[in-house]
Amino acid sequence: QVQLVESGGGLVQPGGSLRLSCAASGFTFTRYAIKWYRQTPGKERELITMISENGALASYADSVKGRFNISRDNTKNVVYLQMSSLKPEDTAMYYCNAALSWFRTGEYWGQGTQVTVSS
Fold it and tell me: How far apart are CA 49 and CA 33, in angstroms?
C-alpha cells in the first residue's frame, strides 16, 4: 500500500521556522522525485520545491527560494522541507507528491499538513 505521510506543520510566528517531513512507504522510494506543493482555499495547488531521486538536484519556486530547503534521506525513505523566515503568505496546506518524472506531477499524494504563519 502506497503511503506518503506529511508531518511537522503547525502555528508559527512570522520570521520563524518549521521542518516538515514526508515519510514514504509501499513503493521504491529511490525511483521517485519528491515534490512539495501547497494550497490555500480557493487557489490552485502550487509547486514550491522538488528534489531528484538521489537528492543531487533541487528546484525552488521564486516565492520560497533562499528561505526553504528540501532534502531527502533515502535510508529512511523521508523527505524534509526546512522552512525559515516564514511569512504570513506561506500559510497553506502543504502536500508531498512522488513523481517518476521531473516534469510532471506524480500519482502519489500525502494527506497534507497545515502550516499557519501568524502573530
Answer: 11
Give tens-digit pLDDT for 52-88.
999 999 999 999 999 999 999 999 999 999 999 999 9
Q: Which DSSP letter does residue 89 get?
A: G
End-to-end CA distance of the chain: 40
Residue 6 and residue 99 in contact, taking contact as beta carbons nearer than 8 Å: no
pLDDT digits (tens, 9 = 90+) for 59-69: 999 999 999 99
Check: CB of residue 51 under 8 Å from CB of residue 58: yes
Q: What is the CA radius of gyration of the chain?
A: 13
Torsion of CA 91, 20, 37, 56, to 10 degrees: 140
CB atoms closer than 10 angstroms to residue 43: 9
pLDDT interval class at 21 (50, 70, 90): very high
